[in-house]
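Re: [ENG-882] Designed sequences occasionally contain unexpected residues at chain ends

Forwarding the minimal case from QA. Structure tokens:
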């Protein structure tokens, strides 16, 4: 009996099975695979269908600063795999800020180094360090840095939270730093005041795209010929 891709698909579908072609990848690696009721299946039928899905997605070697994933489920009435491709592209943005850093004038230092690290689902992490060319740092310097780190973490988190609420782009993370030279500070009473007015962040823009792999007559003929030629060769 000749093998038929349509008969194979329709028989499984009529028996109540969910047939799906899934995919995920980006950043130089990605793949498609076949599932029956959520379990991966690999055979000559699924291999042929997955090969065609690669052509429909057209991601090539999956190279680029993006990620994509999705699932297309078989509809025996339309003889098509239908689903959605969830595509996200990495980008960068610069946020305007007005973050004040106040240091007591009686603290001896040459430079204050502030670093901000934040990943999408993690807390905002701030590191503050005094730098001196000559002399030494005291416990008072260390205690001040700890307090400043906590305060700045709250300010940066608020800025990132506001960005997350925008519609077009989604916040992904921040890895930025600033060297604040004492000579560049503005004196306000007993304090030296610095202003952080720009923050570099990583963002992600998302697009949803309908995916349809139609099992047309030309595809059926090519798959069936390959299936049966392989069968005859064995």
């Amino acid at each position: 009996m000749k093998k038929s891709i349509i008969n194979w698909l329709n028989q499984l579908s009529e028996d109540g099975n969910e047939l799906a072609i899934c995919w995920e990848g980006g950043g130089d690696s990605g793949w498609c695979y076949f599932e029956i009721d959520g379990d991966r299946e690999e055979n000559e039928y699924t291999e042929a269908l997955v090969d065609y899905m690669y052509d429909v997605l057209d991601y090539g070697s999956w190279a680029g600063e993006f990620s994509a994933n999705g699932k297309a489920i078989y509809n025996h009435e339309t003889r098509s795999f239908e689903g959605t491709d969830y595509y996200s592209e990495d980008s960068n943005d610069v946020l305007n800020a007005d973050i004040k850093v106040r240091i007591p004038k009686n603290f001896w230092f040459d430079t204050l180094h502030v670093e901000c690290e934040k990943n999408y689902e993690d807390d905002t992490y701030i590191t503050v360090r005094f730098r001196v060319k000559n002399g030494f740092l005291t416990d008072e310097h260390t205690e001040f840095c700890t307090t400043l780190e906590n305060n700045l973490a709250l300010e940066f988190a608020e800025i990132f939270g506001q960005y997350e609420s925008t519609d077009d782009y989604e916040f992904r993370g921040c890895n930025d730093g600033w060297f604040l030279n004492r000579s560049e500070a503005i004196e306000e009473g007993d304090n030296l005041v610095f202003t952080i007015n720009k923050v570099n962040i990583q963002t992600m823009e998302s697009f949803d795209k309908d995916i349809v792999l139609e099992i047309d007559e030309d595809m059926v003929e090519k798959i069936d010929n390959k299936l049966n030629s392989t069968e005859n060769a064995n």
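QA comment: On inspection the terminal residues look reasonable. The first strand starts at residue 19 and ends at 26. Proposing we downgrade this to a documentation issue.
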